[in-house]
Structure formats: structure tokens, C-alpha cells
Design goal:
The protein is α/β, with parallel strands linked by helices. It folds into two domains: about 250 residues, QueA-like; about 80 residues, Thrombin, subunit H. The protein is about 15% helix and about 30% strand. The strands form three sheets. The chain has a nine-stranded mixed beta sheet with strand order 2-1-17-16-14-3-12-13-15. Helix 5 packs across helix 6.
Length: about 350
């Protein structure tokens, strides 16, 4: 598939700069995969398309205030650090902005322009500004004082409330970007869905910044997707298995949840006799995933998807095309643009049924 097949033209004014209030007042474009039919709704109407016995599976990863500022010692040159992934207790894979941050460079992190006790040393130099930093102490206790929320590069407005870039169920700290499909849910909406018989389960996938990097290769098959840490627990695997046995649907909230579920479907399977079950039951999974979902992919777990509108030439757009069909997604995006939907992280949502 050519990467140009994932391209489209978006008016800049449709890139949402701030979230709507309340969360569930965003618009919802409902796409019916079977016939391509589209409906325009409000997100709080999502329950009209879910059934008793369905299972919502959401990513509960919490965004780190991962943008840190500091200076090199002894030169004093300014640096900016973006935490990407924790490797060990005090070692992180990071993006480091600043000239000549070679292996051995010593950094001191700043608090409001003043030096803090936290230092770091570059121990591995990678490509495209990636560095492995060894910090003088665990970073997490310092993040509230030193860290800033790392908003995507297409958002230029300051975020007044950092919690608006977290889902209401965010729990496990580790993402460099929010799993944005979940930003539309309120506690009241989740309780309402539960009252109508829709259950809720959580997985974890720590989102990396590579999710914003476009595919630059001529064909999408030549692209190497990023690796992210994922976890699906035994109780959640059992919930999914029970849902499938009883005829319910697995509703993935966001592409991150899709990747966890479909990774587990390939790596964390219970062994069952041939013919004993129309699908292979899931087992728990924990580890890294580099699952790359493109058109032609065989979805084994996900039946319904909640998602936002994604960047052109992105792996996320390839994923939703794989799930809903290329022509369906192209028509849906054209309709969303014509109807002035808001796009990307703080934008409106799609429900693909």
C-alpha cells in the first residue's frame, strides 16, 4: 500500500487546540462497517450503539509530566529532556534537545530556572536525538516539581488544566502522550453505560512519541513501527473470554487498546483443543509490542472501536483503515472535514461498529 493512500488535506483551523467541556459533549461520527453508513451524534450518545453484555476495554496509562528543562555542566548550555521509556530504576530512554549532548555529558535539571538536586549523565547516544540518561535518583518523585505536560507538536495553545490531557481513569504512570480516544468519557457516562449492562476493563499501553511521526517510506510495508510496553492482566483476559463466550462484543477504546488486545491474541493465548472453541481464548500478556496493523490484518479480538481522527500518513490511520475498510475511512474523513469536525488529540471522536 502506498503511503500516499494515507494522505488527506486538512484545513489547519480544524486541528483542535483545546478540549471541549464537558468531555462527553464532543461530536461523534458513527461509521457502520457493513454498509458504510454514517451518523452524526454527540459522544454521550454512545450508549445507543452498545448492548448489554458488551465490554469496553480502555487504556489506563497515565501521561508523565515528561518534559524537563536543565543545563549542561559545567558549560551551562541549555537542554530540554523528554522522557520516553523507563529502562531501569534510574535509567530512561529520552529525547534530548541541545547541542553536543554526547556520551558522558552531565546535565542538571532545573526548577523554575534554578538548579535542582537531580542530575543525569548521557550513557548511550541514539539516532534522531534519542539518548539514554542515567539519573542521580529515581525521576518520579521530582516530576510534579520539575516536569511539564508534553502536548503534541500540533497543539499551540497552553493547557490550563493538565488533567484534561489525562483520561478520568488514568492510573499507571508511563505515557509520553495521552490515549486520546478515552478523553471523551466522564465518570457519569461510564456509570450510565454500566447501568445499561456494558462492562468496563482496563489494559495498559504506555504511549510513545513515535505515534506522532509520519510514515516517510514510499510504501507502508517498508515502515518500522515503534515499540511500546503493554500489559493485559489475567482478570481482564478472563473478562474478555467470558464476553466472547456469552456473545458480547469487545469494544476497544482507542488504537492503543486495539494493539494490546491484538498483541495478546498472537502472543498470550491459552492452548485449547482444535475445534473446541470458535476463537482461541486469551491469556495474560506483559511485554513490549511492535504489532503493526495495516489493511488486510486479521482482527481476532476487537469487534467495535472508539477512536479519534488521526494524522495523515500515520500508522494509526493505517490501523483504522484495516479495521473499517479503506474506502469507508476515506469517506468518513471527507464527511468529517465537510461537517467541520475537530481533529486529532483534543478533537472529536468516531465510533466504528
Amino acid at each position: 500500500m502506498k503511503t500516499t493512500d494515507l494522505d488527506y488535506t486538512l484545513p489547519e483551523e480544524l486541528i483542535a487546540q483545546t478540549p471541549v467541556e464537558p468531555r462527553d459533549s464532543s461530536r461523534l461520527l458513527v461509521l457502520h462497517r457493513a454498509d458504510g453508513r454514517l451518523e452524526h451524534r454527540i459522544f454521550r450518545d454512545i450508549g445507543n450503539y452498545l448492548r448489554p453484555g458488551d465490554l469496553l476495554v480502555a487504556n489506563e496509562s497515565r501521561v508523565l509530566p515528561a518534559r524537563l528543562f536543565g543545563h549542561k555542566e559545567p558549560s551551562g548550555g541549555k537542554v530540554e529532556v523528554l522522557l520516553l521509556h523507563k529502562l531501569q530504576d534510574t535509567q530512561w530512554r529520552c529525547l534530548v534537545g541541545g547541542a553536543r549532548t554526547r556520551v558522558g555529558t552531565r546535565l542538571r535539571l532545573d526548577r523554575h530556572g534554578e538548579p535542582s538536586p537531580l542530575t543525569a549523565e548521557v550513557v548511550v547516544a541514539g539516532e534522531r536525538g534519542e539518548r539514554t540518561l542515567a539519573f542521580s535518583a529515581p525521576v518520579e518523585p521530582y516530576l510534579d516539581a520539575l516536569g511539564v505536560m508534553p502536548l503534541p507538536p500540533y497543539i499551540h495553545e497552553p493547557l490550563r488544566d493538565p488533567e484534561r490531557y489525562q483520561t478520568v481513569y488514568a492510573h499507571t504512570l508511563g505515557s509520553a502522550a495521552a490515549p486520546t480516544a478515552g478523553l471523551h468519557f466522564t465518570p457519569e457516562l461510564l456509570l450510565s453505560l454500566r447501568d445499561q449492562g456494558v462492562d468496563l476493563a482496563f489494559v495498559t499501553l504506555h504511549v510513545g512519541l513515535d505515534t506522532f511521526r509520519p510514515i516517510t517510506e514510499e510504501t507502508i510495508e517498508d515502515h518500522h513501527i515503534h515499540t511500546e510496553w503493554a500489559s493485559l492482566s489475567l482478570p481482564v483476559a478472563e473478562q474478555i473470554n467470558r464476553t466472547k463466550v456469552l456473545g458480547g462484543r469487545v469494544v476497544a477504546v482507542g488504537t492503543t487498546s486495539v494493539r494490546v488486545l491484538e498483541t495478546a491474541a498472537r502472543r498470550g493465548l491459552l492452548q485449547t483443543p482444535a475445534g473446541a472453541c470458535p476463537w482461541r481464548p486469551l491469556a495474560p500478556y506483559e511485554g513490549f509490542t511492535d504489532l503493526y496493523i495495516t489493511p488486510g490484518f486479521d482482527f481476532r479480538v476487537v469487534d467495535v472501536m472508539v477512536t479519534n481522527f488521526h494524522l495523515p500518513k500515520s500508522t494509526l490511520l493505517a490501523l483504522v483503515m484495516a479495521f473499517a475498510g479503506e474506502d469507508n475511512i476515506r469517506r468518513a474523513y471527507a464527511e468529517a472535514i465537510a461537517q467541520r469536525y475537530r481533529f486529532f488529540s483534543f478533537g472529536d471522536a468516531m465510533l466504528i461498529v
